[in-house]
Hints:
This protein is mostly helical. 4% of the residues are buried.
Amino acid sequence: MKPLGPARCAAQLSRAGVGCQLATWHPIIDHHMPMRTLQLRHQAYPWLRDEEVQAAMAARRRARRARDRAPSESTQQQLRTCRNAVKTTLNRACAAFFEHSYKYSRPKTWKNVRQFLVASGKARPRTTSPAAADQQWANKLNDHFASIGPSVAAALAESDTAGADIRDPRRPVATRGDL
C-alpha cells in the first residue's frame, strides 16, 4: 500500500477524518516495527495451574474486591483468611509438584529446582549510599549494645561478688623437651 499524497490526504481527511492518517502511518509502522510473536523465557510456575490454587486465588480476588467496596474489620479479616489460604495452597501444590518430579523423573527434578527455586544471580543496585547504610548499621549496633550494656555489667558484677571460688590459674608444667 502506497502512502497518499498531500492533496488526496486533505480530501480524504475532510471525508473520513482519521482514515488518511491511518492510511499513511500503517505502512510505515508495519515496515519499521513489524508485529512479532514473542515467547516468554521463563515458564510460569506449574503448580499455579492447580485447581485448588486457582480456586483459592479466585476467593482471594473476591475478598479483596469486597474489602475495597466496603472496608470493615470483617471484610479485612476475610481477606486475611483468603490470603493465608492461598499461601498454604501454594506451598502444598509446590511440594506436590516437586514430590511427583522426584518420584518419577529425578534428572528433571534438578532442572526444575534450578529453574523455579534458585534466584538469579543478578545483583540489584542499592537504594541508599554505602556510607549511609554503614552509618545506619553502626547506629543500630550502638543502640543494641547501649540497651543491653547495663544488664550485662550488673550480671558480671553479681557473679564477681557472689562469693564464687576464684582459683589461681594453673602453673605451667614442664615436660621433657620444654627445658
